Amino acid sequence: MSSTHDPSTIGSALVKRGLADMLRGGVIMDVVNPEQARIAEDSGAVAVMALERVPSDIRRDGGVARMSDPEMIHEIQAAVTIPVMAKARIGHFAEAQILEALDVDYIDESEVLTPADEEHHIDKWAFTVPFVCGATNLGEALRRIGEGACLIRSKGEAGTGNVVEAVRHLRTINAQLRRLHSADASELFALAKDLQAPLALVQEVATTGKLPVPLFCAGGISTPADASLVLQLGAEAIFVGSGIFKSDDPERMAKAIVEAATHYRDAHVVAKVSTGLGAAMKGIETASLEQRLAERGW
Amino acid sequence: MPRVGVLALQGDVREHTSMLERVGADVVAVRTPDHLDDLDGLVLPGGESTTMAYLLTTSGLRPGLAKRIDDGLSVFGTCAGLILLAHEILDGRSDQWSFDVLPLSVRRNGYGRQISSFETNVDVKGVGEVRGVFIRAPKIETWSEELEILASHDHGDGDHPVLVRHETLWGCSFHPELTNDDRVHRLFVDAL
């Protein structure tokens, strides 16, 4: 097939999904300034997510949450050698264009920020920079992939320190993947309708039994044990937001979660790194939430 | 059947594992020092070199692996793996260490950030044309004359080596494991 390739291509699906492949097994940490970014890199983070406030502060402060100030993104890019991601509001393609112009390595079209469009997500095929999007179930994941997302993450309730929603999303996506994989070809039309997902992607997933892009976990991860849990449930890497820099000892927590992510099947290692860590972030019981972020996006 | 390890601390371990199995290797995921025993070869995968360097230290693998390399273990480093083998790292963290065994200097993200990541055809000596996938790829900036250059690429600033060999050590700027073409892995495994 090499004859169909251009001599040199940027922004191909292979190159975009490839960066997500390189992040597998790693921890992507939310940071709000260069000092936190350096702590993240020192602690073994595979990437940082640059944002003005971590999700728990966004919840507390209320108001409209938007893309970060470019100056802050530049400072973080200058502070670390690992990839720098940043968030755009759902549907806000102009914020995404700005982030692409700033040379960020991945854009998170994120429900943590206030959505800018109640009907349309960003057309992610129009960009050279790759996108990650959240999903609560397989249909949502495939809709995002249909729009050009190159990485899917669960959409656990950010800023709560409570992993229960992320677990629900991972279990739902995996159960639906198994259902599709065992379906007869003639059932896929109705299943695509039920999932509200593009038929071609449903057929592809039914054949392979897995998403065509990596699946990471985000939302509520606060301890090394949380990291081990979601990785054992099939997540390929994790995003940690408030869980690190809202804990008692962020550097130690960051290192412990990184080691737990690598050795997630070895309970002895996870036990060792969990010992004497100090308090994790306080957290919120999700049933008491007034605003569920996972309901943003569709 | 050669026994080949893949350093499985972080990165695209699965793709390398599947390629090595395709070309007939018995593959071991290497996470702890005892996993280094009885290996005929080892792949250092793509990923983040700073993360792998950190985890090589915390897992206790670093001294044992340094000794095995010194004793002549065949190692193939792709992307982050190339950085871990390089004599000198440019634009890295000021405290970034490497095994310092490939006689070359490598610039982290030398081909640019993600938006500049690209794929292109690369002519590999003894193999022919392969699709080279370069992702935030390290660029080999200077190299010793002893280095065997198996492939080069001109990205507008003259030829730079992208696949090299020095005795039992191999380094690659791109990701042969991300394509469906197993010929580069076959080259490495056949040489074991």
Architecture overview:
The complex is a heterodimer of chains A (298) and B (192). Chain A is an alpha/beta fold and 298 residues long. Chain A has helices at residues 13-22, 34-42, 55-61, 70-79, 93-101, 138-146, 164-181, 188-195, 199-208, 224-232, 242-245, 250-262, 267-274; strands at 8-10, 27-31, 47-50, 84-89, 106-110, 131-135, 151-154, 215-218, 238-240. Chain A has 13 helices and nine strands. In chain A, strand 4 (84-89), helix 5 (93-101) and strand 5 (106-110) form a beta-alpha-beta unit. In chain A, helix 12 (250-262) packs antiparallel against helix 13 (267-274). Chain A is globular and about 55 Å long. The two termini of chain A are 36 Å apart. In chain A, 56% of the residues are buried. By secondary structure, chain B is α/β, with parallel strands linked by helices. Chain B is built from five helices and twelve strands. Chain B is globular and about 45 Å long. The mean pLDDT of chain B is 97. The A-B interface holds A 2, 5, 7-12, 14-16, 18-19, 21-26, 41-47, 81-83, 100, 103-106, 128-130, 255, 258-259, 261-263, 266 and B 8-15, 31, 46-48, 50-51, 54-55, 58-59, 79-80, 91-93, 96, 108-109, 113-121, 129, 131, 133-136, 175, 178-179. Strand 1 of chain A pairs antiparallel with strand 7 of chain B.
Q: Any descriptors?
A:
heterodimer; A: 298 residues; alpha/beta; eight-stranded parallel beta barrel; B: 192 residues; Rossmann fold; seven-stranded mixed β-sheet
Question: Which helices and strands, and how do they pair?
Answer:
The complex is a heterodimer of chains A (298) and B (192).
Chain A: E1 8-10, H1 13-22, E2 27-31, H2 34-42, E3 47-50, H3 55-61, H4 70-79, E4 84-89, H5 93-101, E5 106-110, E6 131-135, H6 138-146, E7 151-154, H7 164-181, H8 188-195, H9 199-208, E8 215-218, H10 224-232, E9 238-240, H11 242-245, H12 250-262, H13 267-274
Parallel strand pairs in A: 2-3, 2-9, 3-4, 4-5, 5-6, 6-7, 7-8, 8-9
Helix pairs in contact in A: 2-4, 7-9, 8-9, 10-12, 12-13
Chain B: E1 3-7, H1 13-22, E2 26-30, E3 41-44, H2 49-58, H3 61-70, E4 74-78, H4 80-85, E5 86-90, E6 102-107, E7 118-124, E8 128-134, E9 139-143, E10 148-154, E11 159-166, E12 169-172, H5 183-190
Parallel strand pairs in B: 1-2, 1-3, 3-4, 4-12, 5-6
Antiparallel strand pairs in B: 6-9, 7-8, 10-11, 11-12
